[in-house]
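Sequence of RING-type domain-containing protein (Anopheles christyi).
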Amino acid sequence: MELSCSVCSELYVPSVHVVTTPCGHLFHNDCILPWLERSRTCPECRAECTATALIKVHFNVTANLERNTTLLVEKLNKLTTKLDEQVEALRKIEKRTDKCVERQSMMVDTLQLLLDEIRTQSTCIRDLENKMDDCTVGLGDFLTNMFDTSTV
Ligand SMILES: [Zn+2]
Ligand SMILES: [Zn+2]
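Predicted 3D structure, token representation.
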């Protein structure tokens, strides 16, 4: 429940001076006094009223504060839950990113292995080519020799 002064429409705060008229209506002391100087009636119900008939009102501030604290704690709890959810979501994204990075590094490793193999194989091919060249030269020599001996 929130109480407000019908003269100025502002809510009553615990520290402010609030008074009640004999008819039971609440006003700021600073709002009702100038009013009563002009008209000796309650601004709310027009019942007769004088400044001397006003009674100071004391609110039970503790109860109000407790309620507000409870509301604040509830709000804080909701916010904390929301924050937890967001942190969880962020963690999931992080995990996914980690997996991607892992997979990428695995792929780089595989690629490196393949490159090594290709390099090894090209070395083998070069060796084979060299050997074949040697063989070709050898065969040429052999054929030349054979031709020479047949003509002798
Ligand atoms: Zn007021
Ligand atoms: Zn009144």
